[in-house]
């Protein structure tokens, strides 16, 4: 055992004595954009404005890139399940970095793994992007899936324009 320790000490001293460090082929982290409170509230307000124009009461959830809730609002008289649906749609869009409409289409075509993995496979979730980077997502749940998609898409587009302007 003593010879093992001596060998280890010699190896450590030799490695350090030659000024060598472990080789690093690539950086150990990336700079990642994050959705902040102001951005979440901007997207939420854009969605509320769109829903008001369409006379489409709904629940709206904004999440960060990891799917954590950052902002939420709902109109009066939406269905009791709409808040949970909105959050599920937003989380799905953020974690898969694509609109939840695609997961619905995939599931309709037989790819049921999305359901078993706990993703919401309904239209109305859209990623929020700064350039090409997904920083969060919006989920909308109201009475009509066409309105959900339109409201979420319009809000995501407004967010992207505002982000590009800064």
From TrEMBL:
Pfam assignment, any one: HbpS-like
InterPro entries: GlcG_carb_metab_protein, PduO/GlcC-like, PduO/GlcC-like_sf
Record-linked SUPFAM superfamilies: GlcG-like
PANTHER family according to UniProt: PROTEIN GLCG, SLR1406 PROTEIN
Protein name (Swiss-Prot/TrEMBL): Heme-binding protein
Organism, as annotated: Nguyenibacter vanlangensis
Lineage: Bacteria, Pseudomonadati, Pseudomonadota, Alphaproteobacteria, Acetobacterales
């Amino acid at each position: 055992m003593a010879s093992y320790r001596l060998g280890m000490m010699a190896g450590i001293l030799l490695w350090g004595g030659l000024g060598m460090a472990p080789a690093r082929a690539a950086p150990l982290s990336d700079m990642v954009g994050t959705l902040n409170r102001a951005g979440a509230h901007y997207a939420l307000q854009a969605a509320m404005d769109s829903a008001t124009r369409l006379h489409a009461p709904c629940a709206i959830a904004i999440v960060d890139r990891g799917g954590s809730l950052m902002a939420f609002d709902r109109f009066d008289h939406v269905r009791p399940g709409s808040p949970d649906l909105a959050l599920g749609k937003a989380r799905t869009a953020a974690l898969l970095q694509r609109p939840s409409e695609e997961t619905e289409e995939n599931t309709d075509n037989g790819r049921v793994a999305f359901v078993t993995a706990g993703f919401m496979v309904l239209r109305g979730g859209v990623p929020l992007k700064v350039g090409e980077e997904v920083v969060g997502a919006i989920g909308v749940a109201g009475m009509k899936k066409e309105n959900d998609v339109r409201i979420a898409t319009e809000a995501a587009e407004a967010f992207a324009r505002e982000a590009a302007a800064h």
